[in-house]
Design goal:
The termini are far apart. The chain contains 20 helices and 6 strands. It has helices spanning about 1-35, 40-65, 70-90, 100-110, 140, 170-190, 195-225, 230-240, 255-275, 280-295, 300-315, 315-345, 355, 385-395, 400, 405-420, 425-445, 465-480, 485-505, 515-520; strands at about 120-125, 125-135, 150-155, 160-165, 360-365, 365-370. Among the domains are: about 40-90; about 100-195, no CATH class; about 375-524, no CATH class. Strand 5 (about 360-365) and strand 6 form a beta hairpin. The chain is globular. A two-stranded antiparallel ribbon has the order 1-2.
Amino acid sequence: MNTTNEQSDATRALRWQIYGIMIMISAGLCLGRIIAVDNIPDRAIQDYRLGTVKKQRLEESRKELESKKIPAELIEKELVRIDRELTRQFRTARPTLSANDRSRFCTIRVLVEPEFRETRIIEKDGKQVEQVVPYAIDKIRTRQGWDTIDMVYHALPDDPEIRYMYSSKPPLLPTLMAIPYWVIYNMTGFTFDTHPYLITRIMLILCHLVPLVIGWFLMALLIERFGKSDWGRIFAVAFTCFATFLSTFVVTLNNHLPAIFCIIIAVYAGVRIWFDGDRRKRWFALAGFFAAFAFTSELPSALFFAILGLALLIKYPRQTLIAGTPAALLIVAAFFVTNYIAHKSLMPAYSQPDWYMFDDFVKYGKTIKCHWANPQGIDIGEPHRAVYAFHTIVGHHGILSLTPVWIIAIFGVLIMLRQSLEKPLRDFALLTLVMTLICVAFYISMEQPNRNYGGMTCGHRWTFWLIPFWTLCLLPALDRMSKYRLLRWCGLFLLLMSAMSVSYPLWNPWSPPWLQYFVNYLGY
């Protein structure tokens, strides 16, 4: 008996060594991509313009300075200054990869840098005083290189004559993301103008990579907890690290990674409560806090927040009311408070369609056009709902076609529902199935302008928050497959294709998936 236990412990230790190696390799790959983050088209434009202008300007400046009999060392210093000025003047390269991440970065900048804060004159105690308009991005939005289409334009209730621009993203997450930039700005004086790449990379590491690595380790704990075979467990961890779209989005500031990190913590806490019977209040507090945080970051995950909260309230009402509910209310209150400070409304910007539509106007010397008044490309939306449903599930943006490992998860759900001896596992499978069907049906049922697959992106990103649930549902099927060589090879092929889809948008996840290019190549 002791020998069997020792072998089991040794095998478990070996698995964890393998998990650790895979997680660190994946983290290193993500870190390399963050360090190399760059908007390649903008970089090419900058290099072309500088290549044609800089050489001529520097030669002209050298001749002019030499004609004035200026000492050689002073000439070289002046040429260095001119070179830097030309680089700044013609700078188009930037580490922001899309209008989506620039929308959040604009909010972050106006919260930290005083020069970009919008102000207005109000009457107070019979005097006219200047007041900051919190979260308004008018000044930074018109600065070169900081354009975004993910914005709204509206007036405030007490000042209906003047309208302001705001990010369309809920302000809570950018407010929290502004904290590391506030520290950098106040400690070093560095800004996005002086050190754009350094600051962006630091923020991506802190806001994305660190939570992602923690999430991988927690997923490994859950996989180890529910898996039964060595092959199935190692496959699931490898898939988590290398073949989901989570790592693809590590290079661009987004809401998906923070939301999924919160979901993983909430699921882990829920497992400790629901499966292990651990009723310590810390787990209820963690479940409530992070499920609510996920909801405020990724609206569709409200399904998980509501179902988890209701289930815990019914089964463990005292602990849920004492620990879980206050923790959740703290985040929900922060969400609505920051939204009210920004928009003077409790309703988030994305629920106000009128705010997205406006006539062209000029502000701070720049013409602002409404992208959504005349959408182009994929933002027009798919006119046929059946076609949209096809491409959402098995087409060019397909959940199953881009990540075919999810086919295994379907069988895993069926096994858990029909043959699982543990009722909590059936509950988890049912939870996953219900959330998946509701989420996919919701987006398929939307009107044409919103049937755009999540915009110009490498996958159907509105379903990414379900990745932790789908991954755990793989395990029963993987354990069955581990017994048969042919099925193992089939699983490895599906893993290969999933990893290819994830790796295809290497530099920028805000680009079409490989299947869309392939379909276009075939002429469809």
